[in-house]
Design brief:
Keywords: Membrane, Transmembrane, Transmembrane helix. With 107 residues, the protein is mainly alpha-helical. Helices cover 75% and strands 0% of the residues. Helix 1 packs antiparallel against helix 2 and helix 1 crosses helix 4.
């Protein structure tokens, strides 16, 4: 893997980290629609998070094709690991939304 491919992997990890946290930082549904009740519920945040996981996966496929010239087939274990990693990446946004924000508002 050359220097540009290594750089692309780190950029992708940074992108995935930021994108995994977006559902917990925005009150708009898919960043466009204002919720009728004023605040998104946890189910909508999880749906957004999963859709963003799929979007990041499509970006990863495009990066892989760009770097290697093809996409390698993957089994279910690969997707279980990437979903777990995306879950870990989302932890700061989740903690902010459900723990830290309430603490900061009290002060």
């Amino acid at each position: 893997m050359g220097m540009s491919a290594t750089w692309l992997v780190w950029v992708f990890f940074g992108l995935a980290f930021v994108v995994a946290n977006l559902p917990w930082l925005s009150e708009r549904i898919f960043f466009v629609i204002e919720p009728k009740q004023g605040e998104k519920g946890p189910a909508m945040r999880l749906l957004e998070w999963f859709v963003l996981y799929l979007v990041v996966g499509l970006i990863a496929l495009a990066f892989e094709r760009q770097v290697t010239g093809s996409n390698h087939p993957q089994d279910w274990e690969f997707y279980a690991i990437t979903l777990s990693l995306f879950t870990v990446f989302a932890l700061p946004g989740f903690i902010y939304r459900y723990d830290l924000r309430k603490l900061l508002q009290r002060r």
